[in-house]
Predict the 3D structure of the following.
Amino acid sequence: MEKETNQRAHRYCVIMCGGVGSRFWPFSRSGRPKQFLDFFGTGRSLLQMTYDRMLALTPSSHIILVTNSAYKEIIREQLPEVSEENILCEPARRNTAPCVCWAAHHIYAKDREASIVTLPSDHLIMREGEFHRVIDAGLGFVEQGDRLLTIGLKPTTPHTGYGYIQRGEPTATPDILKVKSFTEKPNKEMAKMFLSTGEFFWNSGMFMWRADSILKAFAKYDKEISTLFDAGEKYYGTSREMDFIEASFSHSPSISIDYAIMEKADNVYVETADLGWSDLGSWQALYETSPKNAEGNVTQNSEVLATDCEGTLFASGQGKIIVASGLKDYIVADQGNALLVYPRAEEQKIRQVVNEVLSRFGEEYV
Amino acid sequence: MEKETNQRAHRYCVIMCGGVGSRFWPFSRSGRPKQFLDFFGTGRSLLQMTYDRMLALTPSSHIILVTNSAYKEIIREQLPEVSEENILCEPARRNTAPCVCWAAHHIYAKDREASIVTLPSDHLIMREGEFHRVIDAGLGFVEQGDRLLTIGLKPTTPHTGYGYIQRGEPTATPDILKVKSFTEKPNKEMAKMFLSTGEFFWNSGMFMWRADSILKAFAKYDKEISTLFDAGEKYYGTSREMDFIEASFSHSPSISIDYAIMEKADNVYVETADLGWSDLGSWQALYETSPKNAEGNVTQNSEVLATDCEGTLFASGQGKIIVASGLKDYIVADQGNALLVYPRAEEQKIRQVVNEVLSRFGEEYV
């Protein structure tokens, strides 16, 4: 019991909050992406809710935010209680692997016994108590050995927007199993098959490991990143850490932690869970997650007068009304200086639309 | 020639600018209806453009604005050069007949030889030079006798949103003919027939008459209004005129000048004209009047990125962009705290929608 309490004192959380969230344009803007928005009008942004959720498990001093330097001020404003040294600002966008590697070094320099839960900052989690239980159990599991653990969500629909994890052999810990395989986003038919077997889980992008375990995995599976960040060993946790990062970070390859490590390593486990989760990756994801009226319409934070509309998501800023008629399966999203009226089925094009908006109208619109 | 010049000195203009323009919601709002908007982003509102157009024909002191008291301040702000005594504020909404009758009395009290052109404030006229010629000729015609003259526009499409005027016998003045009949808004088939005969013209709502002629017509064809306003004879043009109007105006029946007089009188003429005219009565009217791109889309004062859209009108406030896909024959109109996404074919419902918006969301939205 005492040992367990001691272990808990070595728990850290890394919240990744540097993404641009362009698939949620025009709500998500490059200057203020999705994670910084009060998405549901609750008074707290997605990042703030992620932070609040972790406070029950670990003190604020053990919560590290990794972001892009562009967002440092927003974070200071939204989480004034987080000390500046816990905000790691990446000087360039290089996907999640370098982010994970830097954060692990940063924490390991302070605490050789650290275990870490790494989380995206922009997900929806409805079952907070269950989340706490799952994280606690997962950290307990990785603290016992050299293990890389990912959370796999029990799928509720044959979603084609998520990657899936196939479970393998069970372990001695309930709900934690070896990973048999990671899959790319499937097509609809494949996704239905995944669902029917009961063996596949949504890849959540939430990870747990000991700091030394993930650094060991980098050394084994991604030499380039490992070498790059190992070179800073004597700077982590010192006043010169940022100088080193400024000089080195942008030389890292841009690669996700899934590709760099998880899909290659042989000590990878999945903790299956039911968290009332959505990655809120897109308007479509929000539509699927949200309660619908009799016509299948979703009203997000807006006042809507809809006639003869079906399957349509309406989202607007505070105090704005939408009057619509005859829309089937649309996204109507109005925010500030931009309005989107787009078929839900084509929402994968929104990223490229945002690029076109940028080139045609300028950065004040994206 | 001298006589003609003398006559011109007795010419007046009445601009009716008290309407609410609800069919143009959400651009037109009850607090600032269509006529007060810079509809085309030219820097001048429709009212200002109407006023500017008349200045070439008559001095500012001869231009009378009849409006609702709610709009007095907007008018003072938009037309600061108009003296306060030339702004007649109706204390209640009673359609156009009482407006015409009051304005005629007001002018007649100042000038027994007055001739008057009465105009809506919210129409589009593209051919300004031709407009000046037509008004000048029309006033010359009514100055010669006891005649009520309306302008009939040469129709370019079988429009079902306008009333039509059927021409009768010609007069000695070119393009001015007796009126054979007025018609209600026709159905499509009827409108096509009207167009093919060449005998029918759009009823513009622009009128010319001598002050004494229209007062005589009220006495003959609408005793109720005539009696009501005759009772103020000794007050018109005096400091007590408004007291009389405040006490009497709201007792008037609410009726249009067409119903009250034009459709009954036997001295009614039409001056046919081609003015590049639209009544801008609705989004549909604006759509039909506006230049279209290859897909038949109209972009009104907005920046638009449209893919796979056809026959759609996009309108937004300055500095706002619209991204849309897959819309066929829609109106997308975004202004301030309201957004409308509505099929063009159903735009006649917009009036009732505005009423519903008022009752559900409150008057700040209409």
